[in-house]
């Protein structure tokens, strides 16, 4: 008889790793299935994670203390999930894994900034995404070339691909407000003479210490905040970018000329997962839907659990807590 | 000699009423025309234009050539009624006139010839005419059979969405459907008593005579036939059948170059035949969003009951105008409702085509939201060695078309004049815009300077060998923007260029039959979810061909499709720019 796993975890991001780590520590047989060639998901790419200041790599390392006890399959493609009485058969890269439970922790996809063509991503090299900014810090490179000026000006554009009916997105990606201010501070630290302006719709500083971050950015780093969406970015003179917007607090149209733009790209629902050839239930934004109001990780299929940002945009802290909760739920389910 | 029978009274009342009504309305319209157009009518009436007009009347009002082209079965059905009835009247008139042998007959004796002159009469050609009369009647009855079957098996007839007709239309339709079977029965009954009649009425008459004596129903049959005619004529001005007389006047007015938009709009309103062909390919009908298709909208317009939806929910993509057999320009009617006119000529700019050394380019508001297109254009023009000025790089200029679409004529004119002056200041040899909406607004409005859409200009550069292109392995699906393929009638040429750089995978509805992207600026009454449905449908439709890229030539289409399609969307210029071969 084929060996039976306790859990197959689809997604090797922080949610999947947290859950796998806890279950492995408790002696459960776990398989982690990751699409990319390394584990850690999006978080592994982040240079610093707010509010604890860890790098993404450090954070991922903390989640892998017991993972030598689990089986990790990278470069993996889930072909099929099928129910067979009280267990599931998950086919990964053509190989079948029998398991009591399946955890969907597929996280999110990043919004493709090319779709907001008016923001000039892919046209002007000085327009980059928040991910490229983190990558630059990771590689110890400067994201923008400012050799032509002593006092560079940068703009950070919030809500790119979030809360934007024009690109079919109604949800808020939740973390970009905080991450955008963090990026402004980092730019200020790397380019001490620069001026940074954040263009926002609302600043949703919901978590503890977020409001302080916002306050601190204004008082200590002199970051400017303008409430207005960028309508278009074009090439101005001297290689600068021309941003058009409206300052909706002052009620006037404004034009800003800057040396670099960072687009805070939002979170999009992950690729669909099928169980018995049927899509898992989704909410109106395309993220996976929890079937139970009390237990945040249940789906309508007993034994199929969901956790992390595949349920909707989440901060790292929230994702880790959710993953811990699902570990408990899976442990209980397997014990039963 | 002036024999008369009271059964002709219903017909005579109806006939007098409809003739009077049409004459009065046409005179009203003529009086309402501006002086300039009245003059044109008098100048053109005795020219070849009228002959051509009559030709078109025969081909459209009688033969229904445009319907034939779309749908053979419906073409035959419409022709059998129109041409069949027309020939029946004409041949009947000849028959009765020949029989009268030089005498003038009153109209009822022409129309009810068989009643007033029953039995066999021998005169010149009488045998041929007798058979012809029955042939025409048979053709009409066959058409009617199709019409009846079409009600029940409409999908078989190629109709995707069935028209819901108003009460007046249904009354008129019922009367119309009674006319010819009643005529057949009336004539056959008469033939059964007195003999005569052709292969149809004569044979049926013999059959009736064999069954029994039909003398007691013959007279009521003639009454019924006359009543059906009378009812049809009396209802005609208030039903869709008004198009029968009015379409002829519309065709002539167009031929005589009547330019007054109100006059044409009034005629077109009356000339709509409510055939419902506009329903099948309307995205709003297909998605059950709004019943504002011309067939319903124009009916409401006639009754003075047009709704706000009629004005503001339509995309004005022009698909219905393109398919309309009467060529009713529903967009003009909607613009009138919105309080502004958007009378844009069809076709391209008519000025002398020049390649030009100095070109002024205009992105337009949507073009400014698609910087990739602009970058590609710059690359192409640089490669071709064309000196370029982008007029709205620093300034914000507007062609005014969106304002027109939304009923603000004055500001629209003001905006256009600003643009016009700004462009002339740059003293260009040619003007190029990357937006087909702006293009239609700008063409022919810059004195002697030609205006091009960038697809057209790029094609000229290629043909003049100013740029070289290289073929790639890419597969492409080209989406025709409605403003380019239908309004500017520029549909096949972009495909020719694209065919040289990639393999085309075109959807079924392409060229002038293209689907609306759903982004249309005219439809500000659509809510977000309705727009989403429309845009998604088109994006899926284009993605279905599984090409590597979807190509379009309008910044609005590009943005609308890109937001919802699974495939990347690129502008025509981007594809050409990617295929450019560097010259030594």
Describe this structure in words.
The complex is a heterodimer of chains A (336) and B (584). Chain A has 2 domains: 4-108 and 269-335, FAD/NAD(P)-binding domain (3-Layer(bba) Sandwich), CATH 3.50.50; 111-267, FAD/NAD(P)-binding domain. Chain A is of the alpha/beta class. The two termini of chain A are 22 Å apart. In chain A, the strands form 5 sheets. In chain A, strands 1, 2, 3, 4, 5, 6 and 19 form a 7-stranded mixed β-sheet that branches. Chain A is built from 6 helices and 19 strands. Chain A is elongated and about 70 Å long. In chain A, strand 4 (78-84) and strand 5 form a beta hairpin. By secondary structure, chain B is mainly alpha-helical. Chain B folds into 3 domains: 6-153 and 164-243, no CATH class; 358-463, Rossmann fold, CATH 3.40.50; 475-579, Rossmann fold (3-Layer(aba) Sandwich). Chain B has helices spanning 9-32, 35-44, 48-62, 65-70, 72-100, 107-111, 113-116, 126-152, 167-194, 201-211, 215-235, 243-255, 261-271, 277-280, 283-286, 294-302, 308-312, 319-323, 330-338, 364-367, 371-384, 401-405, 409-425, 436-442, 454-463, 482-487, 492-501, 528-543, 555-562, 572-579; strands spanning 358-362, 387-390, 430-433, 451-453, 475-479, 503-504, 549-552, 569-571. In chain B, the strands form 2 sheets. In chain B, strands 2-1-3-4 form a 4-stranded parallel β-sheet. In chain B, strands 6-5-7-8 form a 4-stranded parallel β-sheet, sandwiched between helices. In chain B, strand 7 (549-552), helix 29 and strand 8 (569-571) form a beta-alpha-beta unit. In chain B, helix 9 (167-194) crosses helix 10, helix 9 (167-194) runs antiparallel to helix 11 and helix 27 (492-501) packs parallel to helix 30. The model of chain B has no long low-confidence stretch (mean pLDDT 92). Chain A binds chain B through residues 114-115, 117-118, 120, 122-124, 165-168, 231-235, and chain B through 368-372, 375, 393, 528, 532, 558-559, 562-564, 568.
